[in-house]
Here is the input.
Amino acid sequence: MQFDLSALETSTLVFIGTLIFGALLAAFVLAAGFVALLLLGTGKLAWTVAANTLLAVVHGINAGWDRLVHQASAAEAAADFQAQAAPGTGTYPRVILRDS
Here is the structure.
């Protein structure tokens, strides 16, 4: 027995076509939503990686600077630097004014 579409009424064919079209639209919306979630997840992951990397770099710089400052403060630098009189008159050093 063969299935004959001409035996169906027009309203039945319209109903079946509407169901198929609705299923296609639903599949498209679901696929678009899935792609949007993937893009958002990828963007969030990239932002998190970039922010954590930048934060780690800043913390590394701060830790290195802290170690450098502590090493410099522990060193005896009094013998290396001798006091020198500043060339000038009064309490301010001499300033050269080229335009005057």
About this structure: The chain has a mean pLDDT of 83. Residues 23 and 71 are 71 Å apart (CA to CA). The chain has one helix and no strands. The two ends are 114 Å apart (CA to CA).
